[in-house]
């Protein structure tokens, strides 16, 4: 496959990405089967796991409901899995909902009023909850009580509703968007880090065993190295490599088979997919490495500005391939090296010289 082919500018929809961090229906079904059931099975996140284990053991020893828990971090790192483990460790049922689903205070009141004592309420994307519901949650978390407003205008009446003790587990990918009054009501806050390749290799081995797939050490390492530090992506790549191994080989995943399979699916050695490479290729070939404005770069790859900024850029920045500057996006020397291109001489590129004219053309 020719990675430098101009067709790299045409990108598939962001939701179809093999290395995307959102979970579709198939992913959710597989994740349910692969999820660890207790903290002992959970791989990675050593600090969060150790701290959370102490919190849960202390609560069980007291015979009390566990403190409210806030888990932050990028998608696919195990926040939902940990919420289910919390419920399992406490021997309690779990109720799952999300911030976007709670648009009114009444929506939240209906959920809270139906909770049983000790139940775990998992609220995903908690930062996207509506403000009225958020304010109701303050009292529910602290006093286990909500005021239900009946009627409108001057005749409205607040009816206090007592709630049984429960544990709220909030998950967010953008902890900075949570207001301090809400953040301060969580008894434990854990930040989920990206996984090291060795940890992802253990995840791949465990998932392969559960999926009844034969894989060797180098094959697992090859998949782990392209998984962008995210278990969800590692499991997705494993399933696609499994398909390739069953059709094109003897079903055993080796390093060679994994590399061939992921080349077919356009995931390169650093985990970049077609969208990532399209952004870098446009930045380097069309704009000489930048600086170039985000909107201009998005037009060049045929994507929405938000898609480039929220889907492609975070990983490219984290990998040190792209930098955000006040004047626009700039490719790093590592980006030129990764695509096998030679950076232009200072002043020789169309957008690489960094003069005021370039800023006028390509800046925001």
UniProtKB/TrEMBL annotation:
What name appears for this protein in its UniProt entry?
A: Holliday junction branch migration complex subunit RuvB
Query: Any domain commentary?
Result: Has 3 domains, the large (RuvB-L) and small ATPase (RuvB-S) domains and the C-terminal head (RuvB-H) domain. The head domain binds DNA, while the ATPase domains jointly bind ATP, ADP or are empty depending on the state of the subunit in the translocation cycle. During a single DNA translocation step the structure of each domain remains the same, but their relative positions change.
Please state the protein's primary subcellular location. cytoplasm
Gene name for this UniProt entry: ruvB
Please report which protein family the annotation says this sequence is part of. Answer: Belongs to the RuvB family.
Q: EC number(s) in its UniProt entry?
A: 3.6.4.-
Give the organism the record lists: Streptomyces cinnamoneus (Streptoverticillium cinnamoneum)
Q: Where is this region: Disordered?
A: 1-20, 341-364
Q: Where in the cell is the protein located? A: Cytoplasm
């Amino acid at each position: 496959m020719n990675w430098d082919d101009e067709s790299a500018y045409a990108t598939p929809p962001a939701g179809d990405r093999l290395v995307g961090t959102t979970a579709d229906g198939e992913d959710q079904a597989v994740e349910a089967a692969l999820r660890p059931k207790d903290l002992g099975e959970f791989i990675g996140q050593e600090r969060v796991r150790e701290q959370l284990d102490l919190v849960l053991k202390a609560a069980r020893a007291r015979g009390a409901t566990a403190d409210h828990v806030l888990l932050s971090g990028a998608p696919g790192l195990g926040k939902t899995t940990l919420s289910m483990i919390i419920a399992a460790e406490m021997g309690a049922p779990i109720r799952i909902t999300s911030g976007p689903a709670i648009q009114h205070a009444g929506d939240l009141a209906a959920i809270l009023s139906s909770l049983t004592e000790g139940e775990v309420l998992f609220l995903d994307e908690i930062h996207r909850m509506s403000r009225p519901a958020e304010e109701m949650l303050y009292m529910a978390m602290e006093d286990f009580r909500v005021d239900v407003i009946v009627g409108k205008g001057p005749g409205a009446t607040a009816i206090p509703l007592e709630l049984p003790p429960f544990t709220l587990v909030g998950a967010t990918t953008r902890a900075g968007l949570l207001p301090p009054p809400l953040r301060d009501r969580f008894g434990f806050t854990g930040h989920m880090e990206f996984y090291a390749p060795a940890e992802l290799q253990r995840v791949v081995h465990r998932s392969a065993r559960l999926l009844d797939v034969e894989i060797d050490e180098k094959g697992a390492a090859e998949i782990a190295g392209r998984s962008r530090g995210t278990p969800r992506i590692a499991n997705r790549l494993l399933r696609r490599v499994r398909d390739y191994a069953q059709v094109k080989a003897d079903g055993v995943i080796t390093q060679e088979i994994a590399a061939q399979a992921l080349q077919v699916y356009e995931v390169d050695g650093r985990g970049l997919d077609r969208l990532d490479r399209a952004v870098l290729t446009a930045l380097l070939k069309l704009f000489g490495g930048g600086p170039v404005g985000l909107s201009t770069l998005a037009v060049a790859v045929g994507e929405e500005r938000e898609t480039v900024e929220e889907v492609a850029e975070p990983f490219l920045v984290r990998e040190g391939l792209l930098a955000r500057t006040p004047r626009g996006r700039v490719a790093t020397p590592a980006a030129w090296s990764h695509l096998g291109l030679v950076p232009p001489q200072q002043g020789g590129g169309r957008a690489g010289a960094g003069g005021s004219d370039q800023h006028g053309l390509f800046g925001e």
